[in-house]
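Q: Hi! Curious about what DUF92 domain-containing protein looks like structurally. Here's the sequence.
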Amino acid sequence: MTAPVRQAGVFAALCTLSLAVPLASPRVGAAVAGVVLLGAYVITDGPLFDLLAYPGDYEDSRLYGLITFVLAAVALGLMATAASMPVAVFVGTILLVGYGNLGEQLVRLRTDAAVVRVIGFCLTGTVAAVAGQTVTRSLVGEAVVSALPLVVFLAASGAFLAALLRDVLLRSDDPIVVLSVGLLLWLLAELEPTIGPTEILVALAVTVALGYTSYALETASIAGMLTGVLLVLLTTVLGGYGWFAVLVSFFAIGGLSTKFRYEEKTELGVAEDNNGARGSGNVLGNAAVALIAVLGYAASDAGFLSHEPELYLFAFTGSIATAMSDTLSSEIGSVFDRPRLITTLQPVDPGTDGGVTWQGELAGIVGAAIVATIAAGLFSEVGIVGAAIIIAAGIAGMTVDSLLGATLEGSVLGNQGVNFLATLSGALVSALLVVTFAVLG
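A: Let's find out. The predicted structure is below.
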C-alpha cells in the first residue's frame, strides 16, 4: 500500500467520526473534532506527521491540511446544529470527500488515466454519501426508503461538484471543496424535485452517459464534462425533462459545431483549444445564467420566491437561445474570411473579437429558432408568441456578445465574462418581453 493510499485511508477514517453527531450528540462530535485538532497541532514530526502531512505542511512542521479540513467540517457541523442544514447533508458531505479521495487513490494504483480517477472519486464518493445520509436518517428517525432517490441525487450532485473543484484546485484545497459541497447540498435539500423518484434515477443515468459521451467525442474536457453533467442533472431534477431537452440541445449542437471545418479554423487561428473540447469556464460562461434561472424556478415553485415560475422558464430559454446563437455564429461564421467589426462595419481579420459575417448571423438566428421550436413543442406556456420572444432574446443576446467583444473584451472582460453577460442579456430580454406582453395583453 502506497503512502497516498494510507494517508487517504486515515483521512477517510477520520471523516467517519462525523457520525458522532447523529449517533451520540453534537457535543460529542465537537469533542471529537477538538481532540483531532489538538492532535494535529501537537504532532510536528515523526511517522504519523509524515502520514498525515501535505507537501506544504513540512515548511512549518504543522499539519495545516488536516487542521483546515477539520475546521471546515466544524463549520458545516455548526450549520447542521445551529442552523437549518440537515444533519444527513453534513455527514454525507464529509464522507463524500473523505472516501471519494480514498477511491481515487486506489484507482491511481491501477492507472494514471485522469478520467478513470475522476470516475473512481465520483463512484466512491457517491456511495459513501448515500451510506452516510441513509445511516444518519435512520439514527434521527427520518424516512429512509422513500427518500432514497433524493439521497442519491444529493450524493451524486455533491460528487460531481467535488470532483470538478478538485480538478481545478489543488489537493490541499479540500476544505474549500467540503464547504462548497455542503452548501450546495443544503440548498438542494431545501428545494423540491419536479420529477418523481424513478425519474430522478433515470435522469442521473442518462446525464452521466451523455457527459461521458461528450468527453469521448472530445467536445468537452474532464472539467467541462463534470460541469455539464452537474448542470444537466440539476436542470433535469429541479426543472423537468423539458428543461433538460432545451439545455442538452445546446450542449449537443454547440459541441458538434466546434468540429465544423475544424481544420480550416485551426489554419485561421480561430479554432477552440484542446481539439475543440470545451472546459468548465466555457460551459459555465454559457450556462451559469440558465442554472440560476433553474434554481429560481425551483425556489419559486417551492414558495421561497414570489415571482411566477413562468418568468424563470423564459429567462432560461432566452439565455440558452443566446448561448446557441452565439456559439453557432462564432463556430460557423469564423470560417468565412471577410468578417466586419460590428461597431464600424470595417473589415477585420477572422477571429477578431466583435467581428461578424452574414453567414454567422444567419447561423445564430437559426440557433435561436431551434431553441424556440423545442421550447414551444415542450412547454404549453410558450406557444407562437413565446417562441418569437425566445428568438428575439437569442438575437439580442448574440448582438450584445458581439458588441462587448468589439468594445470591452480583452481590455476589461475575458471571453467567459462576455459569454455570461450576453446570456444574462438574453435572459433579461426574454423575461422583460414576457412581462410587457402580459401587461399589454
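A: A fun detail: The first helix runs from residue 3 to 16.
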